[in-house]
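Um, can you check?
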Amino acid sequence: MRASLIQISVDEDETVDARRRRAAGLVRAQAGADLVVLPELWTTGAFAFEAFAGAAEPLHGPTYEAMAQAASDAGVWLHAGSIPERAAADGGSAAADGALYNTSLVFSPSGDLAAAYRKIHRFGFDRGEAVLMGAGSELVTVRLPETTLGLATCYDLRFPELFRALVDAGAQTLVVPAGWPERRREHWTLLARARAVEDQAIVLACGTAGTHAGVPQAGHSIVVDPWGEVLAEAGPGEEVLTVDFDPARAETVREQFPALKDRVLGLRPPLS
């Protein structure tokens, strides 16, 4: 299976429309890949908190349309990173009308929406994303012909219980778009490898380049196999990281070293 991680640079002098067109072109250039991944909040920058409200769009907004067409044109599965979503309440949604979410979109090779994931863990503690955006509440997996993806976003990487729940839901490959700051780059690499080893899964972690609202980004998108081996790693600047990997590797490792079967905590009711 071939995956291409597009480590796009977020330039504050580039308009959102221009970057959307550029990202779509980069996706189309990956025709021949099986899966293409964009990073978190690449339309605005993950730390451009003041831009979230103005740049927020409905789920089926301009980024949705551009990415659906790009996925169809390239004939690839596309994890289009995440956007600041402005939710519209309807009969099938518990979201408040106008609420903002950090929402990832996944498209099939035909351009159909395969999944949307609202980020569960919001970064910022008492400011930024943590107070500007609502928290998602649903685990999301996506079945591809070769593997099942488990979806997470950036700060989610620090919460291993989320990834274990995704594995329990059938995930073999974990996809993590991010806008991770350069000053914590060592954490990024360490946590991506830890999630791969402890969950015996393939991790595809796609970051951004450039600077978001004065915050330099780590870049260093990374692909890790279930033994923690780094299969490919990008540098700090804008680049497309393409790697071929065996999606069956996760199940092979789980059979050869069945550590997940020895889990105890979380599998039995608490003692009275």
